[in-house]
Amino acid sequence: MRPTTFTEAHTSAPAANARFLHSNPAIQIKNNFWKAYPHCRGVPMAFLRASFVMLEELLYPNLPAADAVLNYESGATEVRVTKVSPDYPPTHVVAVLPFDHNDDTIPVLYPVHHIVFSAYCAYFPDLPKHFPGQGRDSKEISLPVYRVVLDSPAAFPVMLHYFYTRDIDWLVRTLGSQPLREQKDFIRGFRNNLIKLGVVDEPLYEAVDKAWEACLRLRQLAMPDVQELAPFTEAQDQGWLQLEQGYRL
Questions:
Q1: What is the top-level taxon of the source organism (predicted)?
Q2: Residue ranges of the domains in the chain?
């Protein structure tokens, strides 16, 4: 039997999970990051996240596309990845699945860098035992697979782009560019993805709020007879609302 992923274990609003609600994701991220990168100990995480903008041209353009992942099979814990930059290779492959997946569902695969994701996500695995490192001559490496089940797999690459670029304006435009009838669910799914991965970043949540409010205004103009609720106040969101307060740091 395969292990349960974090996001599968918390598919409902986490209000009933006292341990989860009372954890501090910001502290968890800091401790995990400093453990993996001891030379960064003492540097504020907000500063480290902002510094990735300077690395964007080195890391983000060099991420292999999904078609560079070879020999993936359901439940695989490791895959081969080709078309890899020898100087800035990815360290993990994130396999993203929807909640309604089954054994035949093929995940979307995203090679990523541990240093970027671990600076944002409280729930991201440690570095692999055999870290690819820099300066490798080979353009094909073996990477561990991190399997996640999310509310909105389609929104994952939007989050990925932001992590590497911190382009708030692009993020708000992208969230607001979805078809109007789908926009509300897309933004909600994006926000829930952030919380379920334990993402900590105040500007990011502010941007999501901004996009959500703009979405509601557009819907009210286009569908004046439809009663819209205030941002994220539906009953099923109350657990996430309580939890989100710890992520706005």
A1: Eukaryota
A2: 17-247
